[in-house]
Specification:
Length: 343
Amino acid sequence: MRYGLISDIHFGYHAGNRVTEDGINIRELDHYDAAYAAVRELKKEGVDVILDCGDMAEIPAPRKRAILNLIDLVRYAGVPYYSVDGNHTSLKSSSDIHIYDIIASECSNFHGYRGPAYDKTTRVSFVPHSYNNDEIREFIETSLHRDTEILIGHWAADNIPYVGQVAMRDLPEGVRIFLGHYHNYRPSSEHHPTYVGSTEKTAWDQWDYPTGCGIWDSDTESYTRIDIPTRDWANIEGDASDCLEMLTSTDVRDKIARLTVYATPAEYSLVDQVAAKAYARDSRALHFTMRRKNPLNIEEAVQQRLGEQEGLVAQWAAYITDVDLPKNVSRKRIADMGSEALA
């Protein structure tokens, strides 16, 4: 069987104030275009099913346009489309209608899992997102059927620098694992999972992340990555006196541009943002951000921070020596915990 893998399409995402002639936020449209391109490539490759590793929408209750596009995308897929719940789509109230219920009511080929589940047709186990690692481990145990060939989830294992990590030792062996949530594509190595990666970027720390999807062929036991290029990003930095010069010397045409100004609030208020936006009118979107000037160089800043920490540790040691504690509380244990936290 050939499984199409896609993740983190984030329909309904929008940023900046640029809109199309139809009034659609340009960044929202970029996310639609990227996901449709991914599904188009998977269809060309003749996948039997599509496995979505979560975060189909940017928020649990996205705009109507996003919902209609999700329905259209699943219908366009033309094959069974399975998805596992992500942190962006999980409901905050049990009284709400989940986006999966809406899609399933309109698409007979859709299956969305909000809890741990196993599908015997595809031999796939589904493990949704949780911020509680103990719960994820429980989800894995609950969903893991003896015939499971693939596990997909929306969380991260501890082989990547990310929050909400599940220990690698808690992952099942002998099962191919594909994960969403972490937007950077990372292929598997030995027992490590494959992070499918997003179809479009949603944050500035992702400016160099590859975008696309992939295919797992169970007959050959091989994974094929399909890179789908998306819009370029331009990161421009300067202080209040030269930021506009830095902007105008950068090609921002049809790019997502960010102008970072290192300044005090008073200096930042003098930056001619109207002129900046006028120059960047051909960009796909222009974002402004301000960062305070740091009078210290990196070495001085580190030394200052170390000095602050040493001072805090000394203050803590003096405090815990004199403070009254209940008789059943270990003074040494509390002292050690505080020192470790401050170190």
